[in-house]
Design brief:
Order of helices and strands: HEEEEEEEHHEEEEHEEEEEEEE
Helix content: 25-40%
Largest sheet: 8 strands, antiparallel
Strand content: 35-45%
Oligomer: single chain
Number of strands: 19
Distance between the termini: 43 Å
Number of domains: 3
Length: 355
Amino acid sequence: MCLLKNKSFTEKVSFWNLFAIIATLIVLFFYTGYTKDIANEAIKTTQINSRPLLSLTYTDTEGDQEPYNIRNFGKGPALNVIVVVRDIKSNGIFLSNQGDMLIALPQDITMKIPRSNLQELSTEEAKTKLPGANSLIEELSKKQNNQFALVYEDIFGNTFATIFKGSIYEYGEGIEFAELQKNDYGTQHGLAGSRLLNLKLPITLMTNYESYSLIIAFITMVGAIIFAGWQIKINRRLQKLNDFVALSILPDTNTGKIKLLNTGKINLYIHGFEINGVKNKFDQGRLISSATLDSAYYWLPTDSVPPEGKFDIKIYLMDEFNKKFITTGQGQSSKVDQGKSWVTVWTLRTEKTNW
């Protein structure tokens, strides 16, 4: 990117950290909205999976005092079941007595409703008796065929109605399932305005919310991996700076020996050295403290240094974490008056390697 051109490593890292944080916040903002929708969808799915569904079997056998057989084919219990019958023969409304109302009908359980439990009322009397079902009663009273309605609630307080249509004492012409407004048996415009239940729920491999959630989770994961990668790189860089290993090889003009200074950030232990191919190893490492400069150093004898010419130097090191390093350098010796030699040395590099 042009903005990062000629920028230092620290500036580049800071920029990408800021970019990652802003991108993460944007993703989290949208992810929160989708999460809310997913939660609402999960609640709705839970309610559907716990929804009761009542059905009716009518027997018109002579002498049968319990012709109404109600069965719950749903996934959850039906609460506060109320029976409403529209009988065109008597042109009246039959309503179950409040004392005979089914409090709860569990799943896959059949209950029989005796004829004696139904009380014949006029339309207005039925509305007065059950004011919460006025819209339903008004709608049934206008029908020209027999109507049998079961009104019930699920465990979440949602109200449903199963309406059976048919001729006299038969309810086989059609069945309508309706979800009514909460806390009201019926809607403002009667059952015609109710939402019909879609019993054939679509089966899909993944809903839109799940797809969005998966995409957002993937983006978040990629962003987190990139951010983590940069963070690891930063931490490694900082660790290298904190554990920086450096050894300087210097001539000591006072003693004529070779001086070793620890110019890094971590303590070092010398385990041996090699001058002009001659190796010297120590039984134990010898400490050179860090950040002490001239106050703490180690020296090398010049016995192996040739009287004249160029020579190589190797120092075998180990840090506090038992990591091994080799510092390489070179030197030049030249003869001066009275048979003495003048030694000059310099450092090449310090690198991590096994020895």
